[in-house]
Amino acid sequence: MKIMSNEQLVVSYRDALKSEKDKDWAKILKDEIQRRGLRPFKNR
């Protein structure tokens, strides 16, 4: 995985969730988001 800023990481995760094909990529991104302590959605 290439190095991403926090904002790029969250945007990539949201895009991967919208795409049905990118479930594995979404899981990898989610793991990285959790490791960084980010919240990908405002309502959580």
Automatic annotation (TrEMBL):
<dbReference type="Pfam" id="PF08970">
    <property type="entry name" value="Sda"/>
</dbReference>
<dbReference type="GO" id="GO:0004860">
    <property type="term" value="F:protein kinase inhibitor activity"/>
</dbReference>
<dbReference type="InterPro" id="IPR015064">
    <property type="entry name" value="Sda"/>
</dbReference>
<dbReference type="InterPro" id="IPR036916">
    <property type="entry name" value="Sda_sf"/>
</dbReference>
<keyword id="KW-0649">Protein kinase inhibitor</keyword>
<protein>
    <submittedName>
        <fullName>Sporulation histidine kinase inhibitor Sda</fullName>
    </submittedName>
</protein>
